[in-house]
Amino acid sequence: MISVILPTYNRAATIERAIGSVLNQTYSDIEVIVIDDGSSDNTGEIVQGIRDERLRYIKNTENKGACAARNIGIISAKGEYIAFQDSDDIWHRDKLEKQLKVIQITNADVVFCKRNIIKKSGIYKDYLRQKEGFVSEKGSVLKIGTQVIFGKSSIFKEISFDERLPRLQDCEILYRIHERYTIYCEDKVLVDYYDSDDAISASPEKLLQACEIILEIHPELKKEGRKTAYEIADLLISSVRQLDGGDKELRKAMQDMAFKYCKSTKVLIKSLLLILNITWEKDCSGRISLRKWR
After folding, report:
1. 136 and 29 housed in the same domain
2. What is the structure's pLDDT at 273?
3. pTM of the predicted structure, to 2 decimals
4. CA gap 207, 189 in Å, rounded
5. Same domain for 15 and 106?
6. Cα–chain-centroid distance for residue 149?
7. Which domain holds residue 43?
8. 232 and 189, same domain (yes or no)
9. Beta strand 149-152 with 81-84: parallel, antiparallel or unpaired?
10. Half-sphere exposure of 157 (CA within 13 A, CB side)
11. Residue 127 CB: number of other CB atoms within 10 A?
């Protein structure tokens, strides 16, 4: 059996769609554990209104954060394997079937797939440069999301999510898993990820906070040659664009944090552009254009 863990908080508008994409999988031997992290809207009513014996509902009396909610789900999971879903994303119908087959054929401990990244401006290809096969460098697992992760239950019961992290929890847990276990990249798009404005992943402040915590936990990332350090630095610099010219103090803090991780040529060039008040945008086809801050 596969246990699917789905944390949610005030997602009444999207939760039924997200759960439906799990319950309608071609692989049906599953349990779906929804952890309602203290929602104040009618998320709970919607979940409890779904009639399927494979669905389990847990309600936190207070908001503890997505990582804590996932850990509660992991403890409750009964399956041999665990997969993670988010409350505003959609799985393709054969996601679990294909990922289970990959893990059985390769004997990997954890496998992840790729995503369609859906924004208001269009559908973008996944940012991942990792090709099909076993992951050899930890930095290759940075820009994935929890909704693409699938692995052996025993691993997640041993290595849990760090509940201090407001962002990059998927990157950090796979960084630790990679030290002891094998991770395989499946070069197929099996998830539609909705990049919404109110998502935690859209918050530069949360990103800065997460990077500070990760550097405290993993000081070895400051050493030169670490691909993960470069990827985090690049993510910080690129995320400054979301501020769109505002909050210069936060912009500087994020740039300073990026250089604590890595001072690569690419990071330096991007930082210089921001100092010159120039930002960049990438369209669906991958073309990059430059413009001044607003």
Report:
1. yes
2. 64
3. 0.88
4. 25
5. yes
6. 9
7. 2-194
8. no
9. antiparallel
10. 12
11. 15
Mean pLDDT by 10 residues, the chain (294 residues): 97 96 98 97 95 96 94 98 96 98 97 91 76 79 87 98 94 92 94 75 84 90 72 82 71 85 72 61 58 55
Round to whole Å and give the CA distance between 107 and 75: 24
Pairing assessment for the beta strands 55-59 and 110-119 based on DSSP bridges? unpaired
Q: How many CB atoms lie within 10 A of CB 225?
A: 7
Give exposure, 207-218, as e/b (b: 16+ Cβ within 10 Å).
bbbbbebbbeeb
> Residues 113, 170: contact at Cβ < 8 Å?
no
Six-digit token string for 267:
């990071």
What is the pLDDT at residue 58?
97
Domain of 134: which CATH number?
Answer: 3.90.550.10
Verify that 166 and 29 share a domain, yes or no: yes
Q: How many domains does the chain have?
A: 2
